[in-house]
Amino acid sequence: MSQTIEAPRTPARANRSSGTNWEKWGWIYMRASGVLLIVLIFGHLFMNLMVGDGVSAIDFAFVGGKWSDPFWQVWDGLMLWLALIHGGNGMRTLVNDYAHSRGMRGTLKIAILVAVVVLLVLGTLVIFTFDPCPAGSPADLLPSICKGL
């Protein structure tokens, strides 16, 4: 009795000739977002730690001043979106590799999706609606950067 062993690179399921290859696009996204994240993260670290007074200058006023500039809002927003989607895609890959039950895989992927979407919405709201000096607030509760405004 002889047994046939398939070639090592044989796909587990038949090739689909139509439709989008989401695994390929996920793989490409991970590489492209990784390169962009390196630039964004090192730029973020350089501005926060090397320029000015360094780490001792990072406080509420520093963040308020930084996020008053639309350039830094977009920079930090892009970093947030790329990092969260990159991390979510990586977690999805781990779930695909290690969760053997189809139901468990689906549940975990939905949980990852919900977590990523919630964090994206909340993080984006914080970055783009942040106001260190809200109108109508009691003066004794406002940070020192608002006293001169």
The low-confidence runs, each spanning 5 or more residues with pLDDT under 50, are: none
The shape is: elongated
* CATH domain class name: Mainly Alpha
CATH superfamily: Fumarate reductase/succinate dehydrogenase, transmembrane subunit
Give the mean pLDDT.
Answer: 87
Query: Could you estimate the helical fraction of the residues in percent?
Result: 55-70%
Q: What is the structural class?
A: mainly alpha
- The name of the CATH architecture is Up-down Bundle
The rounded Rg comes to: 23 Å
CATH topology grouping: 3 helical TM bundles of succinate and fumarate reductases
Describe the sheet with the most strands: none
Question: Total number of helical segments?
Answer: 4
The H-and-E topology, N to C, reads as HHHH
Strands, count: 0
C-alpha termini separation = 88 Å
β-sheet strand percentage: under 5%
Count of the domains:
1
Report on the structure:
This protein is mostly helical and 149 residues long. The chain has a single domain, classed as Fumarate reductase/succinate dehydrogenase, transmembrane subunit (3 helical TM bundles of succinate and fumarate reductases, Up-down Bundle). The chain has helices at residues 22-50, 60-66, 70-98, 102-129. Helix 1 (22-50) crosses helix 3 and helix 3 runs antiparallel to helix 4 (102-129). The longest helix is centred in the first third of the chain and has 29 residues, at 22-50. The chain is elongated and about 90 Å long. The model has no long low-confidence stretch (mean pLDDT 87).
